[in-house]
């Protein structure tokens, strides 16, 4: 088995901790001193060995990935010249795996998710591998625990039962709260965490059938991979690869044709999507339901008369609050954020405003 | 005429901007690049010349005062070995003035207050000097503009009229809101801003009569001042000087005996007492009634969807808020504060909590 870890995205909802130059997956948002990428590596290596683990990342983060994962062979760091969305990244990895190990089963997991029950995760992956061997494009869907509006959903053929393979009927976009509540009640919907397991030959055939505009340049690039032509071919063809999400390009149409299966997963998954989650999952209690998440940067937090405050002192400073409730305070070396907890998901919008105002060196 | 500027107090309600080692009066909280001390100096020098202006300060701040006021003669910086409250500071200055210029009129004004109408201030001082020449212990009371509970009040004999000298019947402690509202409606009460004008011989005679325990060591210290015995005498006697406020020791009992007069002042006075005031008086509008006060440290502020926010970026960082209202955010090199505006007066309490927690290097 081969495992691919797409390490992309800047995690703007975790700004100013997560930056374009130092994105979420490189940060120790795990409750230990390991970064999300390192924790992902630690979790996956027992499933496939480092020799069969590939990380796909952007040129800006290749050095960070290489330094954080010294046990990962250099040839297993696939560096995209620039981001072309998930279909390009996963297709490149699938084609390189297919070239190195034809017909292999390949799984793909994001670099910046947290999983607490590693044994259950491994068990679920093994069930998904069974489905992949049978020729399905498999996903691992997350059993939802709340009517979350921040994720897409997988509509299953039957009520979801832990570790039981079933058909995915449809990929659903991020829903409204009303729709999400209906999904949760129906019991037939899983969160789409972009976890995929398939045979590379099956995936590449699906890709070629549905998106030849992606498949053709990827095939030519893969042909040159591990040869002296690699860089030249990548430089010539990568700009032509369409930017499209793998769900949209391959998984949704394949689901319509009955070729997508899923295994419901229930292993303490979180995408550490915003600071509210960081506080809840990784923070320590500082009184009155307030939480402080201290990174290795040496900062400290003092919360006085504050309920539901989340403090992230990541800038070697003392951060104190007085008389404020339900507020997120993040301190870093060059930027401070104060945000109402109900607006934690809107930090992306704030970063857009900062971009418009020319604060590019703080993004 | 001689002028004394007691430059003491750490301004804890302006923490973390104001620190024990770098107190409020040394900060440019004036709307220009001049510090409060420098603005005070600029305002007073035309009244008395630098030769007749004395600054009384603590040993920790003597260097700061000397550097900020290069035009002030060195012998006019009176350095207290440690703070002994306002009676000791003012009595020392009065005794030194009396030694250098017997029978002079001396005025005393805090180093950390802001005054916008300098001409009116000078006019009011001249009226107070008239009263001082007649042998009264004069104060300049501030015509109140709101039922402030953070100041003491002067009860006058008649309704206060701008620049008209009258008797002070009583010094009132900081009142409750109910009492302060009554004071405001009565029209016979002024804010006590600790502005005094008197003949040094009159003041020292009052002090000797009422507090010989203060007057005696101060007289002996003054006798040695400007001689080779100054330091030795100060070291021996200063620890014996009782800690007491000049209002309590001298002014209140003198008022009971009809010896205190006042001139109501109305010259745009503020003690820049908390960050709410800093935002209102010195900040620039950043939208929706939010204000940013930028010091020379190069920080910047971005407020998104926030009403009544006060941001003080004093740490060369970008400070941004999203979706929070009526909050004070102060960023400095080593500490960040987030405080509800209604709690701006309680920051002193926060500093006490920090002291208990051993954060001494941040105070």
Automatic annotation (TrEMBL), chains A, B:
GO MF: mannose-1-phosphate guanylyltransferase (GTP) activity
Database matches in SUPFAM superfamilies: Guanosine diphospho-D-mannose pyrophosphorylase/mannose-6-phosphate isomerase linker domain (SSF159283), Nucleotide-diphospho-sugar transferases (SSF53448)
Pfam families in UniProt: ManC_GMP_beta-helix, NTP_transferase
One GO term (biological process): GDP-mannose biosynthetic process
Entry keyword annotation includes Membrane: no
Residue span, MannoseP isomerase/GMP-like beta-helix domain: 299-352
UniProt xrefs under CDD domains: GDP-M1P_Guanylyltransferase
Name under which the protein is recorded: Mannose-1-phosphate guanylyltransferase
């Amino acid at each position: 088995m081969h495992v691919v870890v797409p390490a992309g995205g800047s995690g703007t909802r975790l700004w100013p901790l997560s930056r374009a130059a130092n994105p979420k997956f490189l940060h120790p948002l795990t409750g230990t001193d390991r970064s999300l990428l390192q924790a992902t590596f630690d979790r996956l290596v027992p499933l496939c060995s480092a020799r069969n683990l590939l990380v796909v990342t952007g040129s800006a983060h290749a050095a960070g990935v290489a330094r954080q994962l010294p046990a990962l062979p250099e040839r297993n760091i696939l560096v995209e010249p620039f981001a072309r969305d998930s279909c390009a990244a996963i297709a490149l990895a699938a084609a390189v795996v297919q070239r190195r190990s034809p017909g292999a089963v390949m799984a793909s997991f994001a670099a910046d998710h947290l999983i607490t029950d590693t044994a259950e995760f491994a068990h679920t992956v093994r069930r998904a591998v069974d489905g992949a061997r049978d020729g399905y494009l498999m996903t691992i869907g997350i059993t939802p625990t709340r009517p979350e509006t921040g994720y897409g959903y997988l509509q299953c053929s039957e009520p979801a039962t832990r570790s039981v393979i079933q058909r995915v009927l449809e990929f659903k976009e991020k829903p409204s709260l009303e729709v999400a509540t209906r999904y949760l009640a129906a019991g037939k919907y899983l969160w789409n965490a972009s976890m995929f397991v398939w045979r590379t030959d099956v995936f590449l055939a699906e890709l070629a059938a549905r998106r030849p505009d992606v498949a053709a340049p990827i095939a030519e690039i893969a042909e040159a991979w591990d040869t002296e032509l690699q860089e030249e071919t990548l430089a010539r063809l990568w700009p032509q690869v369409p930017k499209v999400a793998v769900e949209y390009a391959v998984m949704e149409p394949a689901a319509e044709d009955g070729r997508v299966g899923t295994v419901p997963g229930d292993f303490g998954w979180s995408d550490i999507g915003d600071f509210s989650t960081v506080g809840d999952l990784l923070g320590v209690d500082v009184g009155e339901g307030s939480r402080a998440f201290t990174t290795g940067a040496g900062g400290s937090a003092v919360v006085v008369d504050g309920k539901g405050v989340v403090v992230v002192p990541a800038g070697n400073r003392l951060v104190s609050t007085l008389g404020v409730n339900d507020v997120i305070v993040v301190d870093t070396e060059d930027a401070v954020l104060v945000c109402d907890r109900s607006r934690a998901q809107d930090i992306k919008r704030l970063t857009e405003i900062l971009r418009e105002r020319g604060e590019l060196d703080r993004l």
